[in-house]
Amino acid sequence: MPELFATYERLVELAGGGDLAARMLSIYRPPPYLAACSQGVWTREGGPILVRNYDYAPSRLEGVIWHSRLLERHVIGMSDSLWGLLDGINDAGLSVSLTFGGRRVLGDGFGIPLVVRYLLELCETAAEAQDVLARMPYHLAHNLTIVDRSGDFVTAYLSPDREPIFSRSPAATNHQGPVEWPEQARATRTLEREERILELLRSPGETADGFAGAFLSDALYSQAYDRGFGTLYTAVYRPAEGSVEYRWPGFAWPQSFTAFSEGMHEEALLEGSVA
Could you give the CA distance from residue 145 to residue 251 in angstroms, rounded to a whole number? Predict the structure, then answer.
């Protein structure tokens, strides 16, 4: 990722320099972690939109929404690993979000938050993002769902031990085709969540607003916070508008490139846990 190297060096300098800061900010071969997450792309009337639930341990969420301009593009997204992103949108309308891929493999590559950041800094279209992903090394198995302003989309199944698999599936949870980790699949209900998203997308009477709202329903919204799989936020990205809305059951926080407002929201999740 040569385009990010000068920014990386500056961040290391701001962090005080030295080997520890350089290793941490490289997001290269980070400690492995297990998450869940659901995401889907709506391309019918009212679209395109990318909707995602981020399911993880509350204590591990940085909880910072960035509006940044590290290179030439403006980017809005949810922070992870200080300058990486869990999901986001750029001013060209490209939107990206991630889920865990459900495979127990480790490799010599980058953590996915930096990959998401790189795509949003560099690419305008889903096709461009696919070309970039085809040449990257990955540390863990992840699924990326990518949609651009035109409504073109791709779901990328990324793993450290094989070439990326690019799918036209509009939904992604925590497996890459056949389930390879049955215990994890049962614990996170990956198959059931994927099928529910696909049912919503196939329903002739469904609307864009209804599809987005369904991510706050029991079938997709998880409260398994004590197991590290609770939904910490829902994000609704609208590529054509350059906007995103972060949602919780009782609160919605819209942001866009034309109207980005700094502020703070505190959400009580379960038994005093706060994100």
Answer: 25
Tokens of 55: 């399911």
Strand partners, 231: 55
Q: Is the pTM of this model over 0.85?
A: yes
Burial class (CB in 10 A: 0-12, 13-18, 19+), 239: buried
* Nearest of 80, 101, 96 to residue 35 by alpha carbon: 101
Side by side, the strands of the sheet bearing 153-159 are: 65-68, 75-80, 84-90, 95-100, 142-147, 153-159, 162-167
pLDDT in tens, 219-248: 999 999 988 899 999 999 999 999 999 999
Q: Give the strands of the sheet with 251-256, arranged side by side.
A: 171-172, 38-42, 49-56, 230-238, 243-248, 251-256
Taking only the tens place, the pLDDT of each residue in 5-64 is 999 999 999 999 999 999 999 999 998 888 899 999 999 999 999 999 999 999 999 999
CA distance 116 to 104: 21
Q: Which of 231, 209, 221 is nearest to 58 (CA)?
A: 231
- Identify whether the C-beta of residue 236 lies closer than 8 Å to the C-beta of residue 244: yes
Query: Interior CA angle at 251 toward 245 and 256, to 5°?
Result: 20
Strands (E), 148-212: 153-159, 162-167, 171-172
Separation between Cα atoms, residue 88 and residue 235, nearest integer Å = 9
* Residue 228, CB-side half-sphere exposure with 13 Å CA sphere: 6
